[in-house]
From TrEMBL:
Protein's membrane topology: Single-pass type I membrane protein
Entry keywords, A to Z: Calcium, Cell adhesion, Cell membrane, Glycoprotein, Membrane, Repeat, Signal, Transmembrane, Transmembrane helix
Protein name per the record: Cadherin domain-containing protein
Domain of life: Eukaryota
Job description of the protein: Potential calcium-dependent cell-adhesion protein. May be involved in the establishment and maintenance of specific neuronal connections in the brain.
Origin organism lineage: Eukaryota, Metazoa, Chordata, Craniata, Vertebrata
Biological process, per Gene Ontology: anatomical structure morphogenesis; homophilic cell adhesion via plasma membrane adhesion molecules
Cellular component, GO, one term: plasma membrane
Record-linked SUPFAM superfamilies: Cadherin-like
Length: 585
């Protein structure tokens, strides 16, 4: 407060009252003054000398003094001027607390003669205190369910000032409420705490104010149902996933608080027994896990409905559906089924003839169920797809039993899963012989030398042919082909064992009569039709020295042949040459 205002208010408040007493020494009159509290030290309240008509010059001599009935010496008097002035700031509230009127009672004492004046100084309230709330924050708990119009009292503010300087009005963030009135129902889920400022304003000029925050905690009621993030969940699960594997972790949320938002999960009646037996639903966490092995080949889609219920007084619930789609895993081996297999077959079977029909299958789906059938390479067969998953094994090249008598064919089926699975089946194809080979002699021409004078029945040679065919196709019969040399039946001279081709002489040969024979021997198999081949046999009779020399006259012709003794001697050294020369002649 400025000093100009001070002076003005001083003049305004100071009033003088004279009351005359009948007593001499103690004036019955009471001088009354009014001053505002909180005046500055040294401020003059009044001139007592003037007001009481005292001679200023005598005051000092008469030992003028003040007696204050108070704990402090607030005021004093100037002995030179007679002025009453403020020694110490006066706090009305300290002095008088909440009393509406506040007085300082003083006695001014003068001696020679003794006189006592009673003085009353009224301490006027100024608005030096702002309203104050006992606590800075006022906490209120109000349920969401509280109807509008409900009133809540707030604690009052106190202002030690009095009268109009004391608390006059309350404001709550601008709007004027002495008490808190609910004008709109609360929604904890929208705003759980409302922070308000309660302002208390006094009626002083200028007005002072004090504030407290009003914190309204909105108490929850179960007014929200649990909700799932989505109404439908589609989940894919691999078949054969281990028991206990997590399928989905459901999180129903309930905007309420405490038990009103505590959710338990359960299957609805709509969820089939089988589904409930296959999947476990944890009632408190909402986790759905695998309870029983999943087999894509048995069951592919599970539909379930889960209900989330809160634990509030009037429990509310929400639901969602979950579609669990089982995904295929390559867990089934492909299978081969031999529908037909023709064995044995003739080695002369034609190219493109169907030998076997094979079907393949795989219970898996997608690539896991797509299969490829193979047979080993380097086989005179090929696979031909006849219809879906049916294959024919056909001959791709001419067969020859004599080279490969049987084939071990392994059918291998492999799926395209990852890793792939396979299966195999092995079949043996036997070939039946066909008489397609002629008997064969190791040589095409046999020269056999036989010493003359041999014994009849002597084994001359063994002429064995070979036939790679089988059984009767291989079983050979040997015989001598006749009518080679006119008038000579070779069968009279030689015989051959039809079974083993041993050639025997039937008579004793005499070089001097017969020197050689030429004929054919045939080997014939027993196939149908039979096949045969022949060889030429040249029998040469070898001369022995079995004749004594005979002297014949050189001039006597004998068969036109005229040997000369010296020529003979010369030639005899080589009987073979001689014999040959003789034959040729
Ligand atoms: C009241 O005032 C306080 C402080 O200014 C503020 O935080 C709060 O939001 C206000 N409340 C309303 C209802 O306006
Ligand atoms: C549920 O919450 C968990 C943890 O936050 C999360 O991993 C999971 O994906 C949520 N489930 C759904 C269906 O959103
Ligand atoms: C055939 O299958 C068996 C097992 O079933 C396997 O040991 C063998 O190696 C397979 N053979 C071929 C040629 O794939
Ligand atoms: C063949 O034999 C017959 C009688 O067996 C005979 O008449 C004929 O002259 C003979 N021929 C030769 C060339 O020896
Ligand atoms: C002997 O075999 C040859 C072919 O090797 C054939 O030409 C001939 O006719 C056969 N001889 C007889 C008598 O069958």
């Amino acid at each position: 407060m400025g000093s100009v205002l001070m002076v003005r208010s001083h003049k305004r408040y100071v009033t003088l009252v004279f009351l005359f007493s009948l007593f001499l020494c103690v004036s019955a009159s009471v001088s009354h003054y009014s001053i505002p509290e909180e005046m500055k030290e040294g401020s003059v309240v009044a001139n007592l000398a003037t007001d009481l008509s005292l001679d200023v010059k005598t005051l000092n001599k008469r030992r003028m003094r003040l007696d204050i009935i108070a704990s402090k010496k607030y005021l004093d008097v100037n002995k030179e001027t007679g002025e009453l002035y403020v020694v110490e700031k006066i706090d009305r509230e300290y002095l008088c607390n909440t009393k509406l009127s506040c007085y300082l009672k003083l006695e001014m004492i003068l001696e020679n003669p003794l006189r006592i004046f009673n003085i009353e100084v009224e301490i006027l309230d100024i608005n030096d205190n702002a309203p104050q709330f006992r606590r800075d924050a006022i906490h209120l708990d109000i349920s969401e369910a509280t109807p509008k119009g409900e009133r809540f009292s707030l604690s009052n503010a106190v202002d030690p000032d009095v009268g109009s300087n004391s608390v006059n009005t309350y404001h709550l963030n601008g709007s004027k409420f002495a008490e808190l009135i609910l004008i709109k129902t609360l929604d904890r889920e929208q705003q759980a705490v409302h922070n308000l400022i309660l302002t208390a304003v006094d009626g002083g000029t200028p007005a002072r104010s004090g504030t407290a925050s009003v914190i309204v905690h909105v108490l929850d009621t179960n007014d929200n149902a649990p909700t799932f993030g989505k109404s439908v969940y589609n989940v894919q699960v691999l078949e054969n996933s281990p028991i206990g594997s997590l399928v989905i972790d459901l999180n129903a949320t309930d905007l309420d608080e405490g038990s009103n938002s505590d959710v338990t999960y359960s299957y609805s009646l709509y969820t089939s027994e089988k589904t409930q037996e296959t999947f476990n639903l944890n009632p408190s966490t909402g986790e759905i896990t695998i309870k029983d092995m999943l087999n894509y080949e048995d069951f592919r889609i599970y539909d379930m409905e889960v209900i989330a219920t809160d634990k509030g007084a009037n429990s509310l619930s929400g639901q969602c559906t979950i579609k669990i789609i089982v995904e295929d895993m390559n867990d089934n081996h492909p299978e081969i089924s031999i529908k037909s297999f023709q064995t044995p077959v003739s080695e002369s079977i034609e190219v493109d003839t169907v030998i076997s029909v094979v079907s393949v299958s795989d219970k898996d789906s997608g690539d896991n169920g797509v299969v490829d059938l193979r047979i080993p390479d380097n086989m005179p067969f090929k696979l031909r797809e006849s219809s879906d998953n049916y294959y024919e094994l056909v001959v791709s090249e001419p067969l020859d039993r004599e080279k490969v008598p049987e084939y071990v064919i392994t059918f291998t089926v492999t799926d395209r899963g990852s890793p792939p699975l396979s299966d195999n089946e092995t079949m043996t194809l036997e070939l039946l012989d066909v008489n397609d080979n002629v008997p064969q002699f190791p040589q095409s021409f046999y020269t056999i030398r036989v010493m003359e004078n041999n014994a009849p029945g002597d084994l001359l040679s063994s002429l064995t042919a070979f036939d790679p065919d089988l059984h009767e196709n291989q079983y050979l019969v040997y015989f001598i082909l006749e009518k080679e040399i006119a008038n000579t039946s070779m069968s009279m001279l030689f015989s051959i064992n039809p079974e083993n081709g041993n050639l025997y002489a039937l008579k004793t040969f005499d070089y001097e009569i017969e020197k050689e024979f030429l004929f054919h021997i045939e080997a014939r198999d027993s196939g149908s039709p039979p096949l045969s081949s022949n060889v030429t046999v040249h029998i040469i009779i070898v001369d022995q020295n079995d004749n004594a020399p005979v002297i014949v006259s050189p001039w006597r012709a004998h068969d036109g042949f005229v040997p000369k003794p010296f020529w003979l001697c010369k030639c005899v050294r080589n009987w073979d040459d001689y014999m040959f020369a003789a034959m040729v002649s």
